[in-house]
Write a structure and sequence with these properties.
This protein is an alpha/beta fold. Helix content is 48%, strand content 8%. It has helices at residues 2-14, 18-25, 41-55, 70-84, 96-106, 108-111, 121-133, 152-165, 169-182, 207-225, 227-236, 242-255, 257-266, 280-290, 317-325, 343-353, 393-409, 428-436, 453-470, 479-483, 492-502, and strands at residues 31-35, 63-67, 92-95, 117-118, 239-240, 269-272, 298-302, 331-335, 337-338, 372-373, 505-506, 512-513.
Length: 518
Amino acid sequence: MKHNYDLSFLEELKKLNKEQRSAVEHIEGPLLVIAGPGTGKTQILSARIGKILSDTDTKPHNILCLTYTDAGTVAMRKRLLKFIGPDAYRVNIFTFHAFCNQVIQENLDLFGIRGLQAISDLEKAQLFEKLIDGFSPKHILKRFVGDVYYEIGKLKTLFSIMKREGWSSDFISKKIDEYLVEIPTREEFIYKKGNAKTGIKAGDLKQKAIDDETERMEKLRAGAKEFDNFETIMRNAGRYDYDDMIIWVLDAFRSNSNLLANYQERYLYMLVDEYQDTNGAQNQIINLLASYWDKPNVFVVGDDDQSIYRFQGANMSNILEFNVRHAENIKIVLLKENYRSTQPILDASKTLIEYNKERLINKLPGLDKNLIAGNKELDSLTTVPKVTEYFNVRHEELAIVKEIQKLHFNGEAMGEISVIYRNHKQVDNIVKLLQKNNISLSIKRKVDILTLPLVQNLITILRYIKEEFNKPDSAEYLLYEIMHIDFFGIGHQDANSIARACYGRDNPEGTKNSWRVL
């Protein structure tokens, strides 16, 4: 049986192009593969693992492959199973979170988290409310009117970024100080043109903008200082989140040399997929695992032009840092043959992506990322992408519907027409227009029950009840919105009449209250 898999693997190797083969066969030392879309990176990752097992005495369990998503691990395992057979299940293929979870589970006594449980979104919201309730009256993030928990969303995002990047509150405070010092020199805070009426001269500072930005930075500083307090609240509640797992493992590797050495010696070869999407904390774990070797066998593959998780802190700096860190021994392979698209599509994509100046080709000399169509079966497809600009979104939606109607009228099968969009909200009006014109359609989307109009209305009512319970008269700003909820049957004119009738009546405290009718 093994002989059959060996033959299959050799056949797969023959299908690789020159650059792919170079990446697969260079199995010793650090290797950076810059793989554009459709260039077969999953293929070379799997083939490289097969090459390691066939050319060295390395065991499958001594190989660590880190991917960014669960779907990536499944795809890798399937491809590897085709190459090497059952040994594919012995190769360690993890997402970063799954890898860190295994480290924790294998060392529970060291991490001391036997009594902790993963936190739910509801529990996390409750703990954030507890954090804000504990703010002093003079705290810059403390609110006494309206939505007193308004800052929860921002704090949640901030704390998550701090964990993923491994940033402390002191680090953020230091960076804020550096930023505030340079604000007067930044062009966005300097008037470019003068105005005789206001007395503003070109080169004057936009003091209002500077004051607003300073206030925003001070709120950021205050929020960052609450990070440790929130972590204490979470631990006291016996809870942890997924970001915690990476931070715990990173801190454990830094502080416990024996633990780190155990995993460094266990994994002789490391492969990292979608390297452009790794954040700071994840990248530090990779660096620590590789630091045991003078010439580590670490293989990373990625493409800065495909960084879809930049909002999570991922960016091309990791790729540049990897190149600098291993400058003496590194080999760089660039995959340019695309097997997914036609040349007109690749050329159009190139024209668009060149507007982005934050690219590797502007950082690494001699780098050429112009993709070439390599799938001969697509050569007959010569349609050139067409870019159309519209006056506004409504014009765009109507134009799309009219184009679909035209195709339908000309006899095109509806199943041959597709509309691709960024998120479901963008296509809602198009769906309504198509349905109104009796044009059949199929849309694949997950329904989030919390976004349904009925549920949103119920949430608004519950928010009103909760805020009024916590502090009477604090949620009056929601009443006008509630009156417009459909199932109350109050018309717009009636709602306005009620508002006018209530306005100006005195409440028991002797102040004007726009809603309480006595």
